[in-house]
Design a protein that fits this description.
heterodimer, A: 608 residues, alpha/beta, ABC transporter involved in vitamin B12 uptake, BtuC, six-stranded mixed sheet, 25 helices, elongated, B: 312 residues, mainly alpha, two-stranded antiparallel ribbon, 12 helices
Chain lengths: 608, 312
């Protein structure tokens, strides 16, 4: 093969690397499956072709830039309706986008119809980009830039949030992440990169035609990302190489005719795709947490005995000693350093506040779903340094109260006052930012992320989670990242899970996941913690550990509200108890007061 | 753009009837597979295409009777569909479940792989011909009042609706139908009452692929068979099945398919004809984009994830 031929294959490789790496950022990291990636390429490619052909003095570089921005804009427009969709609907939506965008040029005469725009000249830096030799360095530079940007987005605190979104959007929002903003940004960025790749494709072919950007192209890109491994950019490059270089192997090594070689190449690619899925479902080169998760699960399958009889040791002995001999004020000194950070942090409202102050006031919250009243005129108060319990039969609306307080559901009427402000109408992430965080009954840890990363996601105010500092203030991002890691470790030490920091959260037993979830909600350093059934589904010894931890949290001066069915737990923890029935609070007081109430004793607590 | 007169409207409505019936048939077949097995079976396009090619070979090369050849072609599609489920999807879904990755995405990508293999294998087998023709049907135009309809289109409409009603009857009134509906409602629970979902999955793949085969044969007869003929109808099938709802009765799915066909045909009263295919996708885009979040339970049943969106 002569050098020109090799270079022309390499040019093709670079175009698809830009496509695949950007799609991996969207699909592998952020978990948003899109079959419209080639369509965004069409936006960039057609824009370049049209501008170069029709606008005088338009240089290739300018047209490339405009095409990229145009595709990014279309990406943002598509992201807006896509924000609330789950993967199957997202596939459907992007399929519609793909079909519509690629059909448009065939129906618009000035875009060249089915044959597209032909004979598009291009040049850059005084070189005519007609030969593979002049195209290659130009493309290489563009590809390196795109790769670097994708790498920065993916392998950074920003990418951690994206992976959190991939794993569990609701949990991510509960930790104060503006999921919609992240999705919009990443849709826009990756669509822009696809637009650039499309423009490169047009430069390379001197033609902009629908066939270059059709559904087959989009689905090939999805396949490249999956073969290489989601969440691993190098893997995507290997996926591209696998597809593109199969062509010359069939054509020049096995000496098939050009037509047959093109078909054989695709057949082989399809076979490789299915074999990879069978043998390595996470792709050839999955990211390291997924790799570990796979290993752990394999190991668990091989040894059917219980995975571990581990009981977390959050300094148990020490805690007994503390409880027996030390005053409440001294307890704080054995808290992890992270607590000291909280107390000392700029959060002025925290310092100097006394226990017993009202932190959260709920006034007349009401919510109806059709004819069903889930919450009727609820009034509640949470006081600093106390634990408030919400009890009541199943279906009373206790978890709904949490959803109403955190903005997961908007109430029909009423106010929730936190720090002197009504927070009704704020989204869950805004509520978390204001200092109220919740845990979930079914834990909702991020399974394909390490335990440490799970907890790091809870830490607030990370500059690396915002696009500006991520690229413009790298030293600060690195410095804060180190601190965040340190804090997350401290919280893990606090709950006794530090030894598991590198394990994928999905590989842990349920009780361990509950502790990780607790560490995660604690790491938000929110003043008000809403814990949904913290002690359910775990065995006796674990319950004890969990309760000691919650008591410690109270001792730090945090405000805790729990929903709990286990009355022993309520008896031990609750300073104040609300009793809910059918969406109303029908009684309140100390646990002892409620259990001696005759009606409640018969209806719920049972008579002794 | 055509003038707004009644005869014109009727003719377009008749055209819409035959297109819409084809959408109905593939929508029902695809929807049955997706609704029961949860597989995002893009390779539906391949069973559709295969049947058209088998049909072309049997009629043009071997001179088979049209109906006999159609039955054989649709059965070939059914067998291919069942094999795809048994040899590819089922092992993959078990594997995906065991490593905790999203089965939906894995199925989707595997299906893309099958499309790539199938499409190119057919193109390779018929490398010298860009399209092949199906013979054996004496097609003629019939004038009914102001409109013209071909006998082929009439046959398409009659056969398709007969099959759709037959499937509805099977689902509603037979033991097999009850088992299919049980698996569709909850495959894990169906295990407890002695139904093997993996067998039912193979059965619905066979049925759905059979319907795709019939649709492919008619399309191939109307025009000709090409390696890429399966993709556009697949898109329509997706749209029809999703918008109708995955647990809907075949009749409902079919009526929606018919409505899309009519809408597309009648849109040419207002829009240049080349925009007609865009209409359905524009509607899909608006539908999906404006779709309220309340269909959460449907999505959950599809993705088979255990955790509800909001615990409570």
């Amino acid at each position: 093969m002569d050098a020109n031929l090799i270079l022309s294959y390499l040019d093709q490789v670079l175009v698809f690397v830009v496509f695949a790496v950007s799609l991996n950022l969207l699909q592998g990291y952020a978990g948003q499956v899109s079959v419209a990636h080639a369509a965004f390429g069409a936006v960039g490619g057609y824009t370049l072709g049209y501008l170069v052909l029709n606008v005088a003095h338009m240089s290739t570089l300018e047209a490339l830039l405009i095409g990229t921005l145009g595709a990014a804009l279309v990406g943002v427009l598509v992201a807006i309706p896509a924000l609330r969709l789950t993967s199957e609907w997202l596939i459907l939506l992007t399929l519609a986008v793909q079909t519509i965008i690629v059909s448009l040029p065939t129906t618009i005469s000035w875009l060249g119809g089915t044959y597209g725009l032909q004979n598009i000249p291009s040049s850059a830096f005084g070189h005519d980009l007609a030969e593979p030799t002049s195209i290659f360095p130009f493309f290489l530079v563009l590809t390196v830039i795109v790769y670097a940007i994708c790498f920065r987005f993916g392998e950074s605190p920003y990418g951690r949030v994206l992976r959190g979104i991939r794993e569990d959007e609701i949990a991510c929002r509960s930790l104060g992440k503006n999921v919609f903003l992240y999705k919009t940004v990443i849709f826009g960025v990756t669509a822009g990169m696809a637009g650039l790749a499309g423009a490169m494709q047009v430069v390379n072919n001197t033609v902009a035609s629908p066939a270059l950007f059709d559904f087959n192209q989009s689905s090939t890109m999805v396949a490249m990302v999956v073969i290489g491994g989601a969440g691993n950019l190098i893997g995507s490059i290997i996926g591209v190489l696998a597809l593109v270089l199969m062509g010359p192997i069939f054509e020049h090594v096995l000496n098939f005719g050009a037509d047959a070689a093109a078909l054989w190449r695709l057949i082989a690619f399809g076979v490789v795709l299915i074999v990879v899925l069978m043998v390595r479902p996470a792709g050839l080169f999955p990211d390291k947490v997924t790799r570990r998760l796979g290993k752990t699960l394999d190991r668990l399958k091989k040894q059917p005995e219980p995975p571990s009889d581990f009981i977390p040791k959050p300094d148990l002995e020490e805690m007994h000693v503390i409880e027996d001999h030390l005053s409440a004020a001294d307890k704080v000194t054995v808290m992890p350093r992270a607590v000291a950070i909280t107390e000392a942090s700029a959060n002025g409202t925290t310092s100097g506040a006394a226990a017993g102050d009202i932190v959260l006031t709920v006034k007349g919250i009401t919510k109806r779903f059709g004819g069903i009243t889930a919450a009727e005129n609820l009034d509640m108060q949470l006081r600093r340094g106390t634990i408030t319990a919400l009890v009541g039969p199943n279906g009373a609306g206790k978890t709904t109260v949490f959803n109403l307080l955190t903005g997961a559901i908007a109430p029909d009427a009423g106010e929730v006052i936190l720090g002197g402000e009504n927070i009704v109408g704020l989204t869950p992430d805004k509520v978390a930012n204001r200092g109220m965080a919740r845990s979930f009954q079914n834990v909702r840890v991020f399974p394909r992320m390490s335990v440490l990363e799970n907890v790091m996601l809870g830490v607030q105010h990370q500059p690396g989670e915002h696009v500006g500092p991520l690229f413009l203030n790298i030293p600060r991002v690195q410095k804060v990242e180190k601190e965040v890691r340190e804090r997350a470790r401290e919280w893990l030490t606090f709950v006794g899970m530090a030894d598991f920091a590198d394990a994928p959260a999905g590989s842990l037993a349920f009780g361990q996941q509950k502790l990780v979830a607790l560490a995660r909600v604690l790491s938000t350093e929110a003043e008000v913690l809403l814990l949904d059934e913290p002690a359910s589904g775990i065995d006796f010894q674990w319950v004890n550990v969990m309760l000691q931890l919650i008591e410690q949290i109270r001792a730090q001066g945090r405000t805790v509200c729990i929903v709990e069915h286990n009355l022993h737990v309520v008896e031990r923890l609750a300073d104040h108890t609300y009793f809910m029935e059918l969406g109303r609070i029908t009684a309140q007081g100390s646990f002892a007061e409620l259990t001696t109430d005759k009606r409640l004793a018969e209806a719920y607590f049972g008579t002794a | 753009m055509q003038g707004l007169n009644f005869a014109n409207f009727l003719q377009l409505a008749v055209n819409g009837l035959s297109n819409g019936t084809a959408y109905a048939l593939i929508g029902v077949g695809f929807g049955l597979i997706l609704g029961v097995s949860g597989r995002f079976h893009i390779a539906f396009a391949i069973t559709y295409t295969l049947a058209a090619y088998v049909m072309a070979m049997l009629t043009t090369w071997y001179g088979w009777n049209f109906w006999l050849a159609m039955l054989a072609s649709a059965l070939a599609a059914a067998i291919l569909g069942a094999l795809m489920e048994r040899l590819v999807y089922l092992p993959l879904s078990l594997r995906a479940l065991s490593v905790g990755s999203d089965p939906l995405l894995v199925m989707f990508v595997a299906s893309l792989g099958l499309v790539v293999i199938g499409r190119n294998a057919i193109a390779l087998a018929f490398l010298s011909q860009t399209s092949v023709n199906i013979s054996g049907f004496a097609n003629s135009g019939q004038n009914v009042g102001p409109v013209t309809i071909t006998t082929l289109n009439m046959t398409l409409v009659a056969t398709s609706w007969a099959l759709i009603f037959l499937l509805t009857a099977v689902l509603n009134y037979t033991a097999l139908g009850r088992m299919v509906r049980a698996v569709r409602a909850n495959w894990e629970m169906s295990l407890c009452i002695g139904i093997d979902p993996s067998v039912i999955f193979v059965v619905v793949f066979a049925i759905g692929s059979f319907l795709s085969g019939v649709a492919g044969v008619f399309q191939g007869t109307l025009t000709s068979a090409t390696p890429d003929m399966g993709l556009p109808p697949l898109f329509y099938a997706l749209v029809v099945a999703f918008v109708a709802g995955l647990t809907s009765s075949p009749i409902r799915v079919a009526l929606l398919g018919l409505a899309f066909g009519e809408l597309e045909a009648l849109s040419s009263l207002f829009l240049p004809t080349q925009f007609a295919p865009l209409v359905v996708f524009a509607i899909l885009f608006i539908y999906v984009a404006m779709r309220p979040v309340k269909l959460a339970d449907l999505r959950r049943s599809l993705s088979r994830r255990k955790s509800p969106a909001i615990p409570g």
